[in-house]
Amino acid sequence: MDSLERVSQEVISCVLCPLSVGRRKAVPGEGSSHAKVMIVGEAPGYNEDLQGKPFVGSAGQLLDELLRSIGIKRESVFITNIVKCRPPNNRPPRVLERKACRPYLVRQMDLVRPTIVCPMGNTALNDLMGRLPIGETHGKAMEKEGITYLPLYHPAAALYDVSLKNVLFVDFKALGLLLGIGGP
Question: What's the Cα-to-Cα distance from 167 to each of 62, 66, 109, rounded to whole Å?
Fold first, then answer.
């Protein structure tokens, strides 16, 4: 029988693509197995590669703040990435790498069964929804195969462009409304 623990163990020992060679720790993902919300980033960064956990650096601190702003605890969502190992120099994951990791993400989605999936940034959005620009789709709910997708800017983008921080807070309010948290 499949489980999130089994997926995690397989990710930790995975050698399906060249990213496995340079990793310190694979980053399978973490959170509630019954989460209504699944957050999907691009790939682990430096801190994630060291700790084996998703979103633990500066972008993760901002993500935690965004979740708290709508009254959600980090532990109540499931957080993962398109690829589970850090690409060299934080470059975007290549198609081969994304394809190698895709079955892990699909299994995680099947096991968690979230009602809302939040692709964070262009790579996650394009991998999950096809070629759509994050600048035009962020904060707008879309349906696909019975799941609501709410594209969001990646928190790291707001660390480089501070004007996106307010946009992220507004988009997280939209997430709260989708979840029935907060008012208009």
Answer: 13, 11, 27
d(CA 71, CA 97): 35
Q: 152 vs 1, 22, 49, 108, 110, CA distance in Å?
A: 33, 29, 23, 20, 21
- pTM reported for the whole predicted model: 0.95
* DSSP output for 3-68: -HHHHHHHHHT--SSTHHHH-SS----EE-TT-SEEEEES---HHHHHHT-SS-SHHHHHHHHHHH
- 3 class by beta-carbon count within 10 Å (0-12 exposed, 13-18 middle, 19+ buried): exposed
CA pseudo-torsion sign 85, 171, 153, 162: negative
Under DSSP, the state recorded for 152 is B
Q: pLDDT tens for residues 137-160?
A: 999 999 999 999 999 999 999 999
**Is CATH 3.40.470.10 what the domain over 4-178 is classified as, yes or no?**
yes
